[in-house]
Structure formats: structure tokens, C-alpha cells
Amino acid sequence: MGTHCSSLDDILEEDMHHWYTKFMRESPSGLITLFELKTMLEMNGMTEEASSYVDQVFYTFDMDGDGYIDFVEYIAAISLLLKGEINQKLKWYFKLFDQDGNGKIDKEELETIFKAIQDITRSYDIPPEEIVTLIYEKIDVHGEGELTLEEFISGAKDHPDIMDMLTKMMDLTNVLEIIIKGQQKNAIN
Fold first, then answer.
1. Which of 15, 88, 134, 165 is the least crowded, having the fewest Cβ atoms under 10 Å away?
2. Phi and psi of 105, rounded to 5°?
3. Which of 58, 50, 183, 51 is nearest to 128 (CA)?
4. Alpha-carbon distances, residue 31 vs 26, 69, 126, 127, 166 (angstroms)
5. pTM as predicted
């Protein structure tokens, strides 16, 4: 576990030129496509939910919606994941969960994302249905079966157990490490 933290600390301390060099080595075109991201993450054999989750992550980081992650979007994503404020992360989680983009998260959307996360992390401690039920029992105060951004943020902040669970489930540090290791492997070759 100690090497995990120190390698991420090292990553954070690197200067922008170094990040740019790594990015351009991995993607000489200066752009990462969804296919390239899935290749970096070694997505072969993943479930449809896991693949859909990676699609959703990609599209939330593709801020201009052009189908590519450029260097600015790449740095913004890394910065959010590693150093983002809690409100920024909660807004990003919400955008990720809101798969149909209607400004609300329903139970099915949340359950789909949690199943996908478990498929990727291979951690099946708590069934996604139980997680969703717990979240909606505590946060969906009006019992509508869907959450707005405001309800989601205030509910997560008001319930430390839910905030802790979301933080652990949404920790993409392992994904970042796979990308960095992939870049290092390519630099050696």
C-alpha cells in the first residue's frame, strides 16, 4: 500500500512538461480516443456494464464533446481525481451517474454504474442493489425514485457513511495507475 501512495505522490510532483511528454508518448496524435482508453485499461473480457462505465467516464472527461480527450482534458481529469474539491468530485460523480443526461439519477442508472465499477475492480463485497437502496433511503427525501444534483450533493454531505462509500467506490486511482504503467511500458519499448 505504501508504494501505491508514493507513486501517486511522485506523479503529482512531476512538472507539466513531463506530463505532456508522457501524454504525447502514449498518444502521438495529441488525442486519446475511447478505443485507445479501453486498450490502455486492458478492457478485454469485461462485462457490457464495465465497458459502458468506461464509455461514460470517457465522455465526462471529453469536456468539449469532440470524441477525444486532449491534453487539457487529460490534465483536468487527473487533477480532479487526485486533488479535486469534494463539491467538484460530487458534481462529476453525478454527471457520470446521469447516463441519459436528464439532470436526475434514477435507481437503474445508479445500479448499472455500481455493477460496472464492481466488474472493473473485481470487488463484490456489497450487492449494487443494496447500495442503491441505502442511498435512496437516506438521500431521496421526497421518495420520487430519482435524485437531482442538489439532492445528491447535500445528501452525500449530510451522510458521512454514504460519502465514504461513494469515495471508496469512485476512487479511480487504480485506473490512473494502469494508464501511467501503460505509458511507462510503452516508453521502455
1. 15
2. -110, 125
3. 50
4. 9, 5, 37, 36, 30
5. 0.69
At 166, list the grid cell.
461513494
Buried b (16+ CB within 10 A) or exposed e, 15-36: eeeeeeebbeebbeeebbebeb
Q: What is the mean pLDDT of each run of 10 residues along the chain (189 residues)?
A: 45 64 82 84 71 82 90 81 80 87 92 81 80 90 90 92 82 61 49
User: Would you state the cell numbers that stand for residue 14, as one nine-digit string?
Assistant: 512531476
Task: Round to whole Å and give the CA distance between 55 and 8.
Answer: 24
Q: Minimal CA–CA distance to 1: which of 151, 184, 186, 177?
A: 177
Q: Which three cell numbers stand for residue 138?
A: 437516506
What residue has cell string 516508453?
187
DSSP result, 1-24: -HHHHHHHHHHHHS-HHHHHHHHH
